[in-house]
Amino acid sequence: MQFPVKKILACALLAVGASLAQAQTVIKFSHVVAQDTPKGKAAEFFAKKANELTKGKVKVEVYANSALYKDKEEMEALQLGSVQMLAPSLAKFGPLGVKEFEVFDLPFIFDNRDDLHKVTNGPVGAKLLKKLESRGITGLAYWDNGFKVFSANKPLKTVADYKGLKYRIQSSKVLEEEIRALGGMPQVIAFGETYQALQTGVVDGTENPPSNFYTQKMHEVQKHVSMTNHGYLGYAVIVNKKFWDGLPADVREQLNDAMRQATAYANQIAQDENDQSMEAVKKSGKTTIYTPTAEERLALKKALVPVHNKMSSRIGKDTIQDVYQATG
Ligand code: LMR
């Protein structure tokens, strides 16, 4: 008699196990930066919180450093449902047809993080995220990275110093125009290929927040950095809409909660991470760091602000006005 009871119990356990395994939802979260960056750390934080708050019903698998997809492919993978979650830079939504996001790329549009948060935490930010719905994407949050610095193998002090160089940029028409306004030649290159492009001389320089610059080891192949803080780079955390809408409402709410906590964490660490990265670059002794004088920065601003007008028909006058108004 004992044997069948044991057998029944074992079968029951197997069935429970199988249904538990079935009940677990996997979210593949792909991104292109190193783990040790604001986005990398926030993605890990979200994964942990999501698992905790859903009591194991959701497992978030984070794939960092373009391990799964590079810039362009990850957007396609999200729309196809091969991954469920991404946090692309706001500069990478143009190819998707949502050009309004390029407002974030306009040089000198935000004086500081407070200005930026007036947009990302307010109705303007929410309105922009809504624009993704027609592309089968739901926007969940904005995560900070930081203000960009320029780098090259020659000192970049005056506006004239920027002229004639080739710069790697993200896939944004506004950034293309920014480089042209400086007399440079823009080249769109995937983030994961940037180090090599700099190393082999395909391009001469680039722009990025210090955390990306340092964790991609760009300081090994760029002799000069100029602390221009001329533009912002941050993220929209996005999910495949069909997948998201198909989740049970309680699970979705738990994930929203995990996302709120991860967003607070991301935005709290972003500045520090960038400051620490700049310190590390300094310590490496490989790159000279230059802080432009007030006059030099003003000259850079004068050269770059015309980009706002030039790109207004692409981004939309209303969107630019909304941002001006929000930032006061
Ligand atoms: C870049 O391509 O430079 C950035 O968008 C990378 C990132 O995700 O921060």
Can you walk through the features of this model?
Residues 1-23 form the signal peptide. Belongs to the bacterial solute-binding protein 7 family. A six-stranded mixed beta sheet has the order 7-6-8-5-9-11. The longest helix has 36 residues, at 249-284. It has one domain (25-327): Bacterial extracellular solute-binding protein, family 7 (D-Maltodextrin-Binding Protein, domain 2). It is an alpha/beta fold and 328 residues long. α2 (38-53) runs antiparallel to α10. The protein is built from 14 helices and eleven strands. β6 (166-169), α6 and β7 form a beta-alpha-beta unit. Helix content is 48%, strand content 17%. The mean pLDDT is 95. (2S)-2-hydroxybutanedioic acid binds at residues 32-33, 89, 145, 170, 191, 208, 212, 233.
The number of distinct β-strands equals 11
Which molecules are bound in this entry?
(2S)-2-hydroxybutanedioic acid
Strand content: 15-25%
SSE series: HEHEHEHHEEEHEHEHEEHHEHHHH
Question: Within the largest sheet, what's the order of strands?
Answer: 7-6-8-5-9-11
Distance between the termini: 81 Å
What is the helical fraction, as a range of percent? 40-55%
- The global form is globular
The CATH homologous superfamily is termed: Bacterial extracellular solute-binding protein, family 7
CATH topology: D-Maltodextrin-Binding Protein, domain 2
Uncertain parts: none
Main structural class: alpha/beta
Count of folded domains: 1
Computed CA radius of gyration, to the nearest angstrom = 22 Å
From the 3D coordinates, which CATH architecture would you assign? 3-Layer(aba) Sandwich
User: Mind summarizing the main beta sheet?
Assistant: 6 strands, mixed
Averaging pLDDT over every residue, what do you get? 95
Please give the count of helices. 14
**CATH first level:** Alpha Beta
Protein name: C4-dicarboxylate-binding protein DctP
InterPro entries: DctP_fam, TRAP_DctP, TRAP_DctP_sf
Pfam family, one: DctP
Keywords: Signal, Transport
